[in-house]
Structure formats: C-alpha cells, structure tokens
C-alpha cells in the first residue's frame, strides 16, 4: 500500500521550508547576492520560473558547463525523481516520477518526451546527441498532455539552443582526460547583414572503452562522435522573425558491456569475466547512430500577441549489434572455448515531419491564451535479428523481424490563464489528440513455433487531456498552486512478439491523472529559493516491460504488457541558498512511492503491490559553488556535487537479483580565469570515488545481465572566449 498521504507530505514540505528559512535567516550576513530571475518557456510563453504552475527544473548555461553535462544521462542527480538507463545508444530510457519506457520497438514510444527547440523527437534514437551550445534545459515533471501532447505521461524535456545574435562572439574549448578522453568544441556567432545573424557550433568527443572484452582482448564501450549545429535569425520586418536551424550528429562506437548476473555456475563452466567492467562477448559489437534535422520557425508579433509557426523534418539511422550475454560456456571449467550467446542486430531508419501553428494572446483583460494546431507524421523501418546459442544441450535459434510502421498524429489545443485579482489566478486547458498507426511485419526463423508470420494491422486512438489549476499569490515572490492534469501515451504493438497472436495484439494506450500541490517561494530577501511539489498520479493501462518463459526456447522473451492500474505518490524539493556574493548551495530531493495496484500475472507471479521498476524511493543532489579572487585580476571557482540514489529494482517482480543497492556519485570542477573572462583553465572529475553501479539490467527469474555506469574520469580543459 501507499504509505504516506499527500497531506502529510505537503505538511512536511511546508514545515521544512519554514524551519530552513528561519534557521538560515539567523546566519544571513548583511552583504548577500540575490538569486536572479530565471526565464522559462515551459508553458509555451516566456515566464519567470516562480510564476509557472508546473514542477520544472532548469539547468542554465553555467550549470551545463560546470557540471560537464554532455548527455541526458547527466541530468540524474540535478533534478528530483529523474533516473536514466540505456540499453544501447539507440535506446535511452528516461524516467521521471518512476514512469518511463523500455524497448520501444518500431511502433511504441517513450513516456517522457524530448523536445529540441519546440520540435518533438519521436524516436528514442533521435534524442541521442551531444548537449552543447544550449541556452538552457527545462525538465518538466508530471504529465504535460495539454500543451505538449502525447507521450508526456511522465514528463517532458526541453532542450533550448542558444540563438544567433548580431553581437560578434565565439568560443573554442578543448578537454583531455584519462581513458583517452579528447574533446573539442567551437562556437562562432555574429551579424551577417543588417537583418541576419548567424551561429555555428561543432563538438567532437572521443574516449577509449570503459570495459574490456576478454574474448577478443579489446576495450569496448568506446566513443567517437561529431555534432554540428547552425542557425540563422532573420529579422524579416519589425514584426516578423524567422529562425532557420539545422543540426547533425554522427556516433561510432563498439558494443555494450553486458556482465552476467548469477550465471557463473561451475557446473556449466560459465566464464563471466572477473569484474562488472569485463565480459566474454562473442565479438565487440557496434553502436552506430546518425541523426540530423532541419526546422523553420516564424514569429509574427501582433498588437494582441503573437503567431508562431514551427515546421521541422528529422531523421535518425541506427545500426546496433550486441551480445546480450557476454559469457562463455565449456564442459571443462578450466577451459574457455564455446560461447553462450544471446545476440541482437538492429537496423532502424526513421523519418518524421511535424508542423505546429500556435497563437498566443498576451494578457487581454487579465487573460492570457495559448492555442494551436499540431500535425506529426512518422515512418519507421526496422529489422531486428536475434540469435540464441546454448552449449548444453546444443540449441541454436534465430528469428528476424522486418517491420514497417506508419504513424500520423493530429491535435488541437487551447490553454488560458485568468488573473482574477492580485492574489488569485485560475488557469486551464484542453487538448484533443488523434493517432493512427499501421504496421507491416514479416517474422522468420526457428525460435518460435509456427514461424514465419506475416502481420498487417492498423489502429487509431483519440484522447482528451485537460488541465485545471488554481494558484494563490501571497506576494510577488511566493505562490501556492493546486492542479489536476491528464496525460496520454499512444498505443502500438509488441516489438518482440513470441507468437502470431501477440504479434498482432494491440498494446493499449496508457493514461494518467495527476493531482499536484506546489509552492514557488523566495525567502531571506531573495537569497533563498525554495520550490516544492507533492503529487499523486493514478495510471491506467500502464505499458510495462517484462520477461516471460516461452515453451521451446531456452531464453526468456521480452514482452510489453498493460499493467492495468498503478499509483505514484511523491514529493519534490528544489532549493538554492546564496551564502554571500561568491558562495551558494543547491539542494534537490525527490521522494517516490510507487505501487502496481491491479492484479498482474507474470508467469505464475502476481506482482500486484510491487514497486515499479527503476523507481528509487529517494533521489537527492547537493551542489556547492564557491569563487574567490586570486590577486587583483584573476578568479578561482569550485563546484562540487554529490548525487544520491536509493535502492530500487530493475524488474516488476522485485526479485533479489534485480535489486540495486543505494549509491552516491561525487563530481567536481575547479576553474581559474581572469576577471574579464577571456580564457579559463579547469580541472574536472566525474564519479571521483570510482563507484560501480548498475545502469541497466535484464533479469529473468534469478539470472540475467547488467551494464554498469562509467568509471572515474578526470582531466583538464581550456576555454577561450572571443569577441
């Protein structure tokens, strides 16, 4: 059962707020620096973070640089109730408030949506890119179905790129470190004419493998990537701006390190590698990704507000080869010869186009309105081959699935806010979404009885996703709000079916209703920011990944199931305290209690009452920033952070082999620069305690395979800024 009520959580958060403010007020010095206003576009218009009735974390340019945030994975520990896992480079798995997606397949999508400059990224592989030259990142927690649409039942992530400006400036940076780390980035910005500004940036990253394949003698999990981005901002008239953008990303690397869990039985002569950063994979594998896209945005300012059009085309290509087992078997435990293999080869080619037309009415008679129309079309062609080889008894099974999916989405939405008086504000909105999908699939091989199968299916769904919020502004710096919102994730088909019936069976959409109480506050004359949210989320037909045994094949088969009902209860706190003009402490904390509340049989196991997978009860992060003068012309700055994740499970059965112990990670960055900021030399370290922690597991019964996070890395960087 859920162990705490929302009332107690809200009471605890308010008490903590008041006690913290009171205690810190006694020690506040006379000379303090105020926390500056943070502007976001989380609700499709510019607002102060403290005026937004949504639980949202903001990572600004300084945080992105000092914390060496290079991928979405690095958000973990910097925003509450956020976890990240990665099956491979084309399948990042993001969870917010315990909700995410595994093994999306050709027709299923994520529960946490990624947006790049307001453009929805449909495929998981399309979001695997370097994060560089960004103005900020916004992480919205909880369903965002009204303004952001489908597939935001867990939340949404906005990557906001730095815009071109007419002021000439740029930056060149390089970084070197252990594990063969070599990175270089360059940015150039300036006016191309009186009405056109341009910006160009490029990022190169390389590192050696973080693990070793003892079968081939090579390092694995290496990286060689290049990312580019260019944009033009055209001032077409006094009222019209046109922003044209293009970006591309190329990643090359060998395979994922899969280390066996509970398979090292001497009776089978299983060799799993001496540690979790090693294996005996059949070959080194590959993880190759190519993504690129173009977009055009037109902003037409009118006396009553603004009309915005966003048109985009994006594509992603992935080529993945993985040995999921990473072990070898021999009849003689002293010899290592014949491999035990469960391998995947995936080739995916995806294309999408999208169009959004948005209208914003800016505060007419105390009412602000945002509404619009949305269209999205996607084509996914995917070939996935699986091979299973077992030494004793000798078994070789294969299956190859060639799938083509076509999807169309349409939506109309409206959202309005009415400032009733100086204190009270009422807002709400509604979105209608319509999805239609079609799949053509040809499945061949000998792994399952009855192969080959030819599947042709189509399905459509529609959903209303409303939002209603009441906010109370105690003064211009403090606000309390209560909101009810709904989210919708589209349906599809199982990406790895084990029978003709399951191949054609539809996975239903999932729905969530979110009840949330929140506070946005500033204390100590603007030196302490304290934001909190308590929530209860009720899920229906939650799409969950599970493993099940199938007669005739020795290895369990992955599948998607609709869980019926599940509930999440939680609390989130984000705070920042300025301790003088050069020191600050930031703390974030997330509490999460998840439960499957409906009967769900996985084989013979009823998982009703269990926690959702990858949903730690506690997440937290503490960041300390301090700067000091060195002489009269230079400055030394330090950032140190600790990120904590409590224990959790990697499967719905909550079995001991899928249990992950609590762990913490320590990062640090030390920088020396002149006061004019023309250059900077820095020392950095990530995972300084060299903690070994699982980031992905596939567990069936009591055995399976895991992947661990990056080891301790450290290095030096140099940055040169020019004008």
Automatic annotation (TrEMBL):
Keywords: Cell outer membrane, Ion transport, Iron, Iron transport, Membrane, Signal, TonB box, Transmembrane, Transmembrane beta strand, Transport. It is a multi-pass membrane protein. CDD domains: ligand_gated_channel (cd01347). GO terms for biological process: iron ion transport. It is found in: Cell outer membrane. Its main location: membrane. Pfam families: Plug (PF07715), TonB_dep_Rec_b-barrel (PF00593). One of its GO terms (cellular component) is cell outer membrane. The keyword NADP does not apply. Residues 49-156 form the TonB-dependent receptor plug domain. It comes from the Bacteria. Residues 246-688 form the TonB-dependent receptor-like beta-barrel domain. Residues 1-25 form the signal peptide. Belongs to the TonB-dependent receptor family. This is TonB-dependent receptor.
């Amino acid at each position: 059962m859920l162990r705490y009520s929302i009332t107690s959580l809200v009471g605890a958060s308010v008490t903590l707020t008041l006690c913290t403010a009171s205690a810190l007020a006694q020690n506040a010095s006379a000379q303090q620096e105020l926390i500056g206003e943070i502007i976001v576009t989380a609700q499709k218009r510019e607002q102060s973070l403290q005026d937004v009735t949504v639980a949202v974390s903001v990572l600004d340019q300084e945080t992105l640089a000092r914390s060496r945030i290079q991928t979405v994975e690095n958000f973990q520990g910097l925003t509450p109730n956020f976890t990240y896992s990665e099956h491979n480079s084309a399948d990042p798995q993001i969870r917010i408030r315990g909700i995410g997606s595994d093994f999306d397949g050709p027709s299923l999508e994520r529960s946490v949506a990624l947006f790049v400059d307001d453009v929805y990224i449909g495929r998981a592989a399309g979001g695997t890119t370097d994060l560089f030259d960004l103005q900020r990142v916004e992480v919205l927690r909880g369903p965002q179905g009204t303004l952001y649409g489908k597939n935001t039942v867990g939340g949404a992530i906005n990557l906001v790129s730095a815009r071109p400006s007419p002021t000439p400036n740029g930056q060149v940076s390089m970084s070197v470190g252990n594990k063969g780390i070599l990175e270089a980035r360059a940015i150039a910005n300036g006016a191309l004419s009186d009405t056109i500004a341009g910006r160009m940036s490029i990022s190169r990253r390389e590192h050696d493998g973080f693990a070793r394949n003892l079968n081939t003698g090579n390092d694995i999990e290496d990286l060689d990537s290049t990312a580019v981005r260019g944009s033009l901002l055209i001032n077409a008239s006094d009222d019209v701006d046109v922003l044209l953008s293009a970006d591309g990303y190329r990643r090359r690397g060998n395979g994922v390190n899969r280390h066996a869990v509970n398979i090292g039985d001497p009776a089978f002569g299983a060799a799993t590698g001496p540690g979790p950063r090693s294996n005996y994979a059949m070959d080194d594998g590959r993880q190759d990704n190519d993504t690129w896209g173009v977009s055009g945005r037109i902003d037409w300012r009118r006396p009553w507000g603004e009309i915005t059009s966003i048109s985009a085309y994006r594509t992603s290509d992935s080529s993945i080869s993985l040995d999921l087992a990473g072990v070898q078997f021999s009849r003689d435990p002293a010899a290592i010869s014949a491999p035990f293999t469960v391998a995947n080869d995936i080739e995916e080619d995806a294309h999408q186009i999208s169009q959004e037309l948005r209208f914003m009415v800016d505060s007419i008679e105390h009412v602000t309105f945002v509404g619009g129309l949305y269209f999205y079309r996607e084509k996914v062609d995917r070939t996935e081959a699986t091979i299973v080889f077992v030494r004793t008894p000798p078994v070789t099974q294969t299956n190859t699935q060639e799938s083509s999916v076509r999807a169309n989405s349409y939506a109309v939405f409206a959202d309005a806010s009415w400032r009733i008086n100086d204190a009270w504000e009422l807002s709400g909105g509604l979105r209608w979404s319509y999805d239609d999908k079609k799949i053509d699939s040809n499945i061949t091989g000998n792994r399952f009885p009855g192969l080959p199968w030819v599947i042709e299916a189509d399905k459509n769904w529609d959903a209303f996703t409303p939002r209603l919020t009441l906010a109370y502004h105690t003064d211009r710096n403090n606000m309390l709000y209560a909101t009810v919102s709904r989210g919708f994730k589209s349906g599809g088909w199982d990406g790895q079916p084990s029978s003709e019936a399951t191949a054609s069976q539809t996975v239903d959409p999932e729905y969530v209703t979110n009840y949330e109480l929140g506070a946005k506050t500033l204390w100590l004359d603007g030196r302490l920011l304290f934001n909190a949210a308590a929530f209860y989320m009720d899920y229906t037909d939650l799409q969950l990944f599970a493993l099940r045994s199938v007669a005739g094949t020795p290895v369990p088969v992955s599948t998607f199931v609709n869980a019926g009902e599940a509930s999440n209860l939680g609390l989130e706190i984000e705070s920042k305290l300025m301790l003088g003009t050069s020191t600050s402490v930031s703390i974030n904390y997330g509490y999460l209690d998840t439960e499957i509340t409906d009967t769900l049989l996985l084989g013979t196991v009823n998982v009703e009452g269990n926690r959702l997978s990858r949903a730690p009860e506690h997440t937290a992060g503490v960041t300390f920033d301090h700067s000091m003068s060195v002489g009269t012309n230079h400055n030394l700055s330090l950032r140190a952070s600790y990120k904590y994740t409590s224990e959790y499970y990697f499967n719905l059965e909550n079995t001991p082999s899928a249990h992950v112990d609590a762990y913490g990670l320590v990062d640090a960055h030390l920088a020396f620069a002149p006061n004019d900021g023309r250059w900077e030399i820095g020392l950095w370290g990530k995972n300084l305690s060299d903690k070994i922690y699982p980031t992905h597991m596939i567990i069936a019964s009591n055995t399976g395979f895991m992947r661990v996070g990056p080891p301790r890395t450290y290095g030096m960087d140099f940055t040169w800024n020019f004008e």
